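Summary: Need help interpreting a holo structure output

Steps to reproduce:
1. Submit the protein chain below together with the SMILES for coenzyme A.
2. Request a joint structure prediction with the ligand placed.
3. Inspect the structure token block that comes back.

Expected: a single structure record containing both the chain and the bound molecule.
Actual: see attached output.

Input attached:
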Amino acid sequence: MSPSVIRLARYTQTELDEITGGAVDPFEVAATGLKSLAKEVHFGVREQGRLVAHAGLVEVTVSVGGELIRVMGLGGVIVAPDLRGHGLARLVVTAAVEHARGTGAEFGLLFCWPDRMPLYRKLGWRALDGSMQVEQPDGPVGTPLRPMWIPLVEGSVWPPGPARLLSLPM
Ligand SMILES: CC(C)(COP(=O)(O)OP(=O)(O)OC[C@H]1O[C@@H](n2cnc3c(N)ncnc32)[C@H](O)[C@@H]1OP(=O)(O)O)[C@@H](O)C(=O)NCCC(=O)NCCS
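--- attached output ---
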């Protein structure tokens, strides 16, 4: 029987440590120096009581070609190191996207390292052409992380033009 995804009432450093075993910099983003936005809605998988996977969502706004669009940001996608390669990321990301489809937002958006893009491509996400500036405490900056989007409404296509996230990245 495949494990089921649950909505988590709480997701803090404690829950992240439960998944990673307390790994330092589990997303390998410390070197970027980027501050990130906490997620608001959390999905997880428990195996024998232990939290082993997570994906989070938070609503954010992007300025694209001068227009503001509301998108659901996906982040904090992580699977326990000993359980990777068994489809758990697919499960939690799919649950998060299904939830996002019910929010009225037109697109999902995430940032990831290029070597993790194949995972998301398999789940229907597409690379955004070009980069996207993101907000940081001292103002907007570029990021080496690549933006990817997914339509939450059938037929929606990410609009052309320079894009800027008007918040910290997810
Ligand atoms: C990236 C991560 C979440 C993947 O979790 P996972 O449970 O191993 O992924 P899944 O087993 O659900 O993979 C789903 C599919 O994506 C593929 N995939 C997963 N990670 C991949 C990677 N790094 N590169 C290429 N393909 C990958 C799998 O082969 C699988 O393909 P299939 O369905 O055709 O067999 C996990 O390695 C992790 O927690 N890494 C550290 C944190 C991190 O980098 N999070 C992502 C931040 S953007």
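--- end attachment ---

Reviewer comment: The chain has a mean pLDDT of 96. The beta strands are 5-8, 41-47, 50-64, 67-79, 107-112, 126-127, 132-136, 139-141, 146-151, 163-165.
Status: needs-info
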